[in-house]
């Protein structure tokens, strides 16, 4: 039963992180009336997570935790309840009720799933929870990578890489999760020859999207993995060597080489470092119009500095779909109070992570950093939903890491066995 619960929990968590707003109605002809919430996968995923949470609470009531089992981080959970509660309350002074109701629905889904995962994981072997989660993530994102490559090469390699109606930024984040998942299994069980090239492939596919924010978030996530995982210098050199060989082989011997070079030149060098805009000919950084959204969000926040303009105030006032920055979105719609609650969540997680740093899973922490950095240049509040869930997952599974000892494997990776 424990194996089934851990596998089911990992499946629901991974599906929640990956599914986004995808609905079964996309499989048929487009409906002019708009998406049907009952056909959206996320609703049923959250319901499954809620069901597992009730089972977890019932199970936890019968006995205390054992060594290596997940434990609830009361500090982080309290901060999350306050944050999500305040966002829901801000719907009361929203300027547009229709926009507010739609966003309130997404906030409730994110809150229920985030808190539900912490409760569902109670009294479960943390290793199994993490294995189940990363197994589904690597499998699903690996399939998306294959679909993306087929679509990209079939289209002649001239467009930015994306799949299933999602944008390039979304695909870059998914490839970051793919890379971190490969690093998770490398650190857990070795097989460097398999996992490191897979991680390098995820990074290369992210570059093909042309998403500069996505590339920066992957760099931050991988660096966090290396620091938290305390990867020895010798193994880091081996990792870098294999990643370099895999990258060079892809560039030199596959059709992706030319596309990668073009993406680096156009998206990362010309637009970022040598962009010439307007008639003035003055150099600047091309931000795809985000600077206008940032300015509008900041101005709106200054108009309602304490409590914000209300939930979905940014689109409700006709300023745009969303600001493309998590902190600005919370600031302009929730005010200083909203930022304080968000800061409390980040601080609570940071304190817990520091105190239990020897037991943290490096890949999960890297995923937190990945989503946090990515949410500063892409997506709205719901697109950053995995940030809070990954925080809960990383802290509730710290106990397992504290109970492990690290044993060098034959091929230079790190194998972890229970003490």
From TrEMBL:
Give the O-antigen ligase-related domain ranges.
Answer: 199-342
Q: Which compartments does it reside in?
A: Membrane
Listed Pfam families:
Wzy_C (PF04932)
Give the residue spans that cross the bilayer. Answer: 43-62, 74-94, 100-122, 129-150, 170-186, 193-209, 215-231, 236-256, 326-347, 359-375, 387-403
Please give, as recorded in its UniProt entry, the membrane topology of this protein: Multi-pass membrane protein
* Keyword terms: Ligase, Membrane, Transmembrane, Transmembrane helix
InterPro entries the UniProt entry points to:
O-antigen_ligase-rel_domated, WaaL-like
**UniProt GO cellular component terms:** membrane
> GO: which molecular function terms?
ligase activity
PANTHER family named in the record: LIPOPOLYSACCHARIDE BIOSYNTHESIS PROTEIN PA4999-RELATED (PTHR37422:SF13), TEICHURONIC ACID BIOSYNTHESIS PROTEIN TUAE (PTHR37422)
Record protein name field: O-antigen ligase family protein
Q: Per the UniProt entry, what species is this protein from, by scientific name? A: Pyxidicoccus fallax
At the highest ranks, the source species' classification is: Bacteria, Pseudomonadati, Myxococcota, Myxococcia, Myxococcales
